[in-house]
């Protein structure tokens, strides 16, 4: 695929804890093509957020990428100097976060926080940045943009703040936008607005989007292709329609079954039994085995590889 | 602005209460007359002095008389110095304020960089060194530090005068002595406050924008971390105005603390009352000032 913008190969991330290193991302491989929207799906603890922080080079101080490659266009991100990485962040790869309530600095105005990125990366003057900032706020559908520039984050609603975050992230026209659960903390009606906004912006700007979520509804709304992650690994990869039509991995099927359906009357909603295993204490063999409805003794012996069943559909399971 | 006017009005009952408490305390702790007259004075002489000073009136009457004089700025005369008590205080006040401000500057100069550094390099050797130093600074008695500074920098090396007030040089050692203790406390507070802020989501946002570490730490984080620090600064300023007796004594600094303690010992009522009143005003002012600074630092705080 020579059209790929981001190529992640065998990425492994670990954290230093009091009991030694704990690996939370265990050999993740995927790529994001130009203009594509890739969704990474998984429940809490599956390593999806850590993967995105690793790509941005902003892992917490006790975390590190200890194996694998990250290529962004022709750049090898693991070998960038701190300065080169900083220039990349915010300009070529931008990120929006889950919690719009806390993701903006409470003591600076919206305008200040918007201008900051522009002045930093584009060396704009304050006036130019102000103008561009207002323009960006208008692009993300904020009314009274000029006034909002002078407001503080606490004076805006959650949806507005997420719009500001998006405006900030897109202000330098990044090639890749990483959106980490961008709608999780918002009301349902606001969620829909934000998703529509992201879709429209993508159509206009040809920015690739990598969206991280546990919400398959969001995936269906936005994504071209999906990666399902479980316990720090990719367990299934498929184009969006393929995945919804024909999910292969029992974990993916479990996720699909967990979505309540309006026409079925059931006493109890479906959920996948158990929880994601503790990274410090991973099962040998298939990591999903303890929660798997179809696994047997064979699954405890071998760690299944990611196998392609068709050109673009891959699964990590020996039973299907 | 309206908030501050309101706050000023609210200080009136506080001040009244303070005058009442001090008024009662100086009267229940002993007979001032016995110290004003020689031991050989007869009971009749004592009685006539009490009568003349108004000490035989019922307490409420005495208090009202005291308040009436207070409103005109008359706190009475000092028994010991035989001069107007308020003038005595006002003479000492500049020395106290000068030392308080200088100590605070020393404390800020020491604690801000050290607190930030130890938060950024947390759990490193440097952090250990700074936090260890902060515990030491807090534990070190100020009279000991003051004397050591004098021995080293005034006696051995003769950089600064040993004691007294006058030049800027006189100010250095007492300011370092007082500033060190405050810096120790502020360093630890800045460290923990910075640690908390550095873990916040908006710091991650700042990183994701590609900002440099220096801007993230000194601007995005520090501005937020300052808010609790201002509270401690206001409290410490209050202490500096009233309670620096030991340092004042070590350096023969002619401040309020010394005067107040001497006056308490001698039951010099007028001076005690005037001094506590003036100190109370400064405590209130420093708190109001802290309120004002909060508002400048944190737009979420609104008073009305």
UniProtKB/TrEMBL annotation, chain A:
GO biological process: peptide transport
Cellular compartment(s): Cell membrane
Name of this chain's protein: Peptide/nickel transport system ATP-binding protein/oligopeptide transport system ATP-binding protein
SMART domains xrefs: AAA
Organism taxonomic ancestry: Bacteria, Bacillati, Bacillota, Bacilli, Bacillales
Protein source organism: Planococcus koreensis
Transport in keyword set: yes
Entry GO terms, CC: plasma membrane
MF (Gene Ontology): ATP binding; ATP hydrolysis activity
Superkingdom of origin: Bacteria
From TrEMBL, chain B:
Keyword Transmembrane helix among record annotations: yes
Residues annotated as transmembrane: 99-120, 141-160, 166-184, 225-251, 271-294
GO annotation terms (biological process): transmembrane transport
InterPro entries: BPD_transp_1_N, MetI-like, MetI-like_sf
Domain (ABC transmembrane type-1): residue spans on this chain: 93-290
Compartments (UniProt record): Cell membrane
Protein known as: Peptide/nickel transport system permease protein
Organism name: Planococcus koreensis
Lineage: Bacteria, Bacillati, Bacillota, Bacilli, Bacillales
């Amino acid at each position: 695929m020579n059209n790929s913008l981001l190529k992640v190969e065998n990425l492994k991330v670990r954290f230093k804890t009091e009991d030694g290193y704990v690996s939370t991302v265990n050999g993740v491989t995927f790529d994001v093509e130009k203009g594509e929207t890739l969704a990474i799906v998984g429940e809490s603890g599956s390593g999806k957020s850590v993967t995105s922080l690793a790509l941005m080079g902003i892992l917490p101080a006790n975390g590190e990428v200890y194996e694998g490659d990250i290529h962004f266009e022709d750049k090898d991100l693991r070998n960038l100097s701190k300065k080169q990485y900083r220039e990349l962040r915010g300009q070529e790869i931008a990120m929006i976060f889950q919690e719009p309530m806390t993701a903006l600095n409470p003591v600076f105005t919206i305008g200040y926080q918007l201008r900051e990125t522009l002045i930093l990366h584009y060396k704009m003057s304050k006036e130019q940045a102000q103008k561009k900032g207002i323009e960006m706020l208008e692009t993300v559908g904020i009314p009274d943009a000029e006034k909002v520039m002078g407001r503080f984050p606490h004076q805006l609603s959650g949806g507005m703040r997420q719009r500001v975050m998006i405006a900030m992230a897109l202000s330098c026209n990044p090639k890749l936008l990483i959106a980490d659960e961008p709608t999780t903390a918002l009301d349902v009606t606001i969620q829909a607005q934000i998703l529509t906004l992201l879709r429209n912006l993508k159509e206009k700007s040809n920015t690739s989007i990598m969206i991280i979520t546990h919400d398959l509804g969001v995936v269906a709304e936005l994504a071209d292709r999906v990666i399902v992650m479980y316990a720090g690994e990719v367990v299934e990869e498929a184009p969006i329609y393929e995945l919804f039509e024909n999910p292969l991995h029992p974990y993916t099927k479990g996720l699909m079954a967990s979505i309540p359906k309006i026409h079925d009357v059931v006493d109890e909603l479906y959920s996948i039994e158990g929880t994601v295993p503790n990274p410090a204490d991973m099962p040998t063999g298939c990591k999903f085995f303890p929660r798997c409805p179809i696994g047997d003794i064979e699954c405890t012996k071998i760690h299944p590889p990611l196998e392609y069943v068709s050109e673009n559909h891959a699964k990590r399971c020996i039973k299907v | 602005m309206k908030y501050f006017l309101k706050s000023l009005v609210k200080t009136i009952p506080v001040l009244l209460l303070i005058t009442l408490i001090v008024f009662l305390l100086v009267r229940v702790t002993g007979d001032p007359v016995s110290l004003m007259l020689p031991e050989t004075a007869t009971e009749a002489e004592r009685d006539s002095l009490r009568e003349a000073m108004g000490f035989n009136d019922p307490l409420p009457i005495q208090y009202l008389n005291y308040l009436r004089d207070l409103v005109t700025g008359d706190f009475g005369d000092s028994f010991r110095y035989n001069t107007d008590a308020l003038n005595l205080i006002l003479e000492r006040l500049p020395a106290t304020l000068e030392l308080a401000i200088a100590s605070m500057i020393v404390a800020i100069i020491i604690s801000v960089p050290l607190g930030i550094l130890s938060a950024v390099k947390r759990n490193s050797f440097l952090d250990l060194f700074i936090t260890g130093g902060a515990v030491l600074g807090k534990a070190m008695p100020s009279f000991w530090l003051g004397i050591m500074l004098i021995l080293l920098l005034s006696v051995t090396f003769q950089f600064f005068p040993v004691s007294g007030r006058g030049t800027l040089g006189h100010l250095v050692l007492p300011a370092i002595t007082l500033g060190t203790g405050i810096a120790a406390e502020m360093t630890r507070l800045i460290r923990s406050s910075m640690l908390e802020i550095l873990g916040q989501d908006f710091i991650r946002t700042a990183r994701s924008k590609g900002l440099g570490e220096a801007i993230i730490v000194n601007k995005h984080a520090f501005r937020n971390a300052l808010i609790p620090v201002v509270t401690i600064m206001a409290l410490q300023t209050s202490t500096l105005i009233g309670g620096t007796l030991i340092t004042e004594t070590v350096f023969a600094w002619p401040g309020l603390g010394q005067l107040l303690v001497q006056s308490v010992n001698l039951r010099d009522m007028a001076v005690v009352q005037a001094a506590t009143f003036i100190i109370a005003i400064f405590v209130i002012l420093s708190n109001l000032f802290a309120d004002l600074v909060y508002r400048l630092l944190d737009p979420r705080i609104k008073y009305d």
